[in-house]
Write a structure and sequence with these properties.
With 284 residues, the protein is mainly alpha-helical. It is built from 16 helices and no strands. The longest helix has 17 residues.
């Protein structure tokens, strides 16, 4: 077994990690049980460099039945995603997606999306990028679909499934606390929700590490009349650090030189200052 794993690119430390988590593998028949699984993962597109890291990080996969679990799960994923490349991408993001019976939650959840009008492209986007979302218990997933529809998201748009993913990761109490912060900053609850509709994933931004530094900076721009406190200012909720800095810091740095220091000070308080300063602040 150890020889087989080494032949397939696993290092001594990776094998040690794999065996320490799944010691039963030492009793496995290498050629009859392990080799077919390794060959199967390679057949769907795992590269020689990716596979050792993937297997050593997810030892339980090598204990799953190839015929009863791995092949049916991956075949189902391919029926949704159509391309092996997307299947591999999905599995890399959530390896446990192929450890569970798809009939239990995944298939009913995807069928529900179809029933409410989500197109194939949106479903494929969700399964490729946020596969853990479709593993939610069906009752919980149905609640999320209902909540997102009630908020006015259009099932025919990609943003609908993005919202499902975003709201699956946040409790109602945390949502209310974030909406309250926006209220103190000057937004109504309705405006905040409209901002979320533009980019639902921002609902999961960390208050201390992302929202507070951003709001502090925006308050300065509001006071100077450089941005408006209406829906148009919801563009501050941009997904990437670089996008935000380009649009709201670098753009106004000559007019408001203190923006850089204010933002960095807040980021230092959240423990991210050095990373921001070293990795992003290259204005000229």
């Amino acid at each position: 077994m150890l020889h087989l794993l080494k032949e397939n690119g696993l290092t001594t430390s990776q094998i040690s990690q794999l065996v320490s988590i799944q010691p039963s593998l030492l009793l496995s028949d290498a050629k009859k049980t392990l080799l077919p699984k390794i060959e199967f993962f390679r057949s769907i597109g795992f590269s020689c460099s990716d596979l050792p890291r993937f297997l050593s990080s997810n030892p339980p996969l090598l204990s799953r039945s190839l015929e009863k679990r791995l092949i049916p799960c991956l075949d189902f994923l391919k029926s949704i995603l159509l391309e092996d490349e997307k299947v591999v991408s999905s599995v890399k993001r959530a390896p446990w997606v192929i450890q569970f019976d798809p009939r239990k939650n995944m298939i009913p959840n995807i069928e529900l999306l179809r029933q409410v009008g989500a197109p194939q492209s949106a479903i494929a986007f969700l399964v490729t990028n946020f596969p853990s979302s479709v593993l939610n218990k069906h009752t919980r997933f149905a609640e999320l679909v209902h909540e997102v529809k009630e908020m006015g998201f259009n099932p025919s748009k990609i943003v609908f499934v993005e919202a499902i993913h975003a709201f699956a990761k946040i409790t109602k109490s945390k949502l209310e606390s974030k909406l309250e912060l926006y209220k103190r900053w000057g937004w109504s609850k309705e405006i905040a929700l409209l901002a979320f509709k533009r980019n639902p994933t921002v609902i999961n931004f960390c208050l201390e590490k992302r929202i507070v530094p951003i709001c502090s900076l925006i308050q300065i721009l509001l006071a100077k009349g450089l941005v408006k406190s209406d829906l148009s200012s919801s563009t501050f909720l941009l997904p990437g650090e670089r996008c935000f800095l380009d649009k709201f810091v670098i753009k106004f740095q000559d007019i408001v030189p203190e923006l850089r220091n204010v933002y960095l000070a807040k980021m230092h308080l959240s423990g991210l200052g050095n990373a921001v300063e070293e990795g992003i602040w290259n204005f000229k």
